[in-house]
Specification:
Number of helices of chain A: 2
Helix content of chain A: 10-25%
Order of helices and strands of chain A: EEHEEEHE
Strand order of the largest sheet of chain A: 1-6-2-3-4-5
Number of strands of chain B: 8
Largest sheet of chain A: 6 strands, antiparallel
Radius of gyration of chain A: 13 Å
Radius of gyration of chain B: 30 Å
Oligomer: heterodimer
Amino acid sequence: MSQTVSPTPAPDTPDLTGLTPMHQLKTHQVAEIKYVDASHDDIARLKSMGICQGRRIQLIQAGDPLILKVVGVRIGVSARLAKRVYAEPCCSSGKKC
Amino acid sequence: MVLGRSKDKNVTSSVSLPVVDDDSRKPQLPVIALVGNPNAGKTTLFNQFSGLRAKTANFAGTTIDHRSARVKFNHGDAELLDLPGLYGLDAATPEEKVAQDVLLGRVEGMTQPDLVLLVIDATNLERNLYLAARTIELGLPTVVALNMWDLAQKLPTKINLDSLTKDLGVPVIPVSARTGDGIEQLRQAIDTSLEHYKPAIAPESLQECSSCCECPYAARFDWAEQVSDRCGVNNEHHTHGPMTEAIDRILTHPVIGIFAFFAVMAVVFILIFQIATYPMDMIEAGFGYAGAWVGSFLGEGDLKSLIVDGIIGGVGGVLVFLPQILILFFFLTLLEDTGYMARAAFVMDRLMRRVGLPGRAFVPMLSAHACAIPAIMSTKIIEDRRDRLVTILVLPLLTCSARLPVYVMLIALLFAGNAVYAGLAFTGAYSLGIIAALVMAFLFKKTILPGDTRPLVIELPSYRRPSIKTATLLTLDRAKLFVKKAGTIILVLSILLWAASTYPKMPEGGESAVAQQRIAQIEQQITQTTDETAVAEFNNQIEHIQAKEELAYSVAGRAGKIFEPVFRPLGFDWQINVGVLSSFAAREVIVSTLAIVYGVGEEVAEDGDRFAQVLDRQTREDGSRVFTTATSFSLLVFYVLAMQCLPTQAVTKREAGGWKWAFFQLGYMSVLAYGLALITYQTISFFS
């Protein structure tokens, strides 16, 4: 699959310090998405389903594919894609990011 | 269908009221496009408006079908168009692409809709508002149907309708498509909007999103969150109920989920085969009766033969599978409606990926065990073109119902009276089909259609009670489509096949010397008996011999002899070849052809065991048995793997986008069937 650069101007090397790839989140952990890196088609698919910068996600079931909750919906996502989504884990209560 | 007002693709919503094509004298109906997220209840709402008036058609230049209906409003009729579900306007699947193209006025022969009826799931407002943002930004007149209002009322937080209407800038009508509540108000709102043609103007807060250069997705989701907050909905409460979560712990479990999936499918298939028996018997009896009735008005001759055997018999032979196809479709629609199918794709993804196919390919693969035609039609849910093509290519390898009569005949021949071996042979034939499909899929992904499977992204919607009405209406539509599409192809094929096995006509006394001698013997026996039953039986035998001789003289019979050198290494004689060739268009035809070739009546052919006994007695000219173990196994393997179904090929052409793929499918399946049948025959012959 061709690797297309994200259409939005993004820094060449994003600062991923403190971020966890989505597939490595703990079950039920809440996190805020900070950076999405995927091939062009899949970026659009993920993003129009709400997996985009600034959204809070919760990992419901780990594994491959994994299940996460975003904007009130459960979405099954292949780990291959999930590991391209970087998120910042929130405090354990999960109330506020 | 009458669609579109103007051929000008660039016409924008703000230009004018609906105008009529200069070159078209037909009255044009205003078009209402039904837009919404998958699972927002779009189809249920469509059915509320359309009832039984819906029709199914393809979008121009695509293989995507859609339902539309002419709906009465106070100011006049309008065409309601049920578009495929959308998440946004960034199409991933061909279905989403066409829905998006309709909204943007990019479909040939259609202009932008006159009104967008946007269906929003009130139980998950924030999620649905993203699509609402994208749709309202199009600037077309828009009316929002806030669906599942009854369910939303039961949630702890209530939606403030005034605030929502203000934020969206378009009329918002709470409805329940399931119960019909609010439909009348929605009808009035549509009426008013059609009358005044008021384009949607995106509220200021939303306009900022489209001009935002950071991330337009994030900006719109932020907007959705704010709108949702303002109308009093806290998203944390608007999630799946505990019921969905509990069921999902089982159904999406990596191990239990797979067992659950097979259990669900086993139940569906048992039901299909159980329930379908009755309508199938009725169809068979109906066509038999129709044939006899029509035949009674026609004198003996070619016309009677054409109508009774060719047309009525041929079409009836294929339509008999319609109940199975429709019951399958009905159950799959019900399962889809409950939300289970998304879970099935989710759990199967891990397994299917290993052969290079997405999880979504599994449902078509299961459907193909009833019939490859609806299975190929349902591959549209697979996003990636290569994944979809590979799935289409391998689907006809799976054992469909039309293969069953052939399996019954051959397995009875091989293991008459041994139920265990017969059962194992059935399992073996099914398994061979499945293994061949998976191996070929793997090979195609490694060679002609290389590339990774598209990663899975699938919404797992809340479970809900399915609507029998929706499933019934969709199934009826599907039935009409199948009868119309497959029916016309089958009609033509039936006539061609009939002609090939009837012409050229054998001249009087044109039977072979052996046949003439046999007829003379029987005629002599007739003169020696006075028993009427025996005479009738002898006359029957003469008729069978003549039918066989006529077939041998026809194009089909001659072709069987021409192909003898080709099929000899597989253990087939010219008579089996006639069966193979005549069943080129529909595989089950081999049973009735062999019945003619080996001179047995139809009632015997339908009884697997009795027919097998007759076949078992057949000898070649050198006196050896025709149906040896090696030949029977070779023929069985051949029928598991050979294409032998022209209607499927027509559907492949349509769905894969060209005859190239249909021919490729025919080619590779023929090579595979021939190769494995050859290996089977030669191996068994060597050892026995």
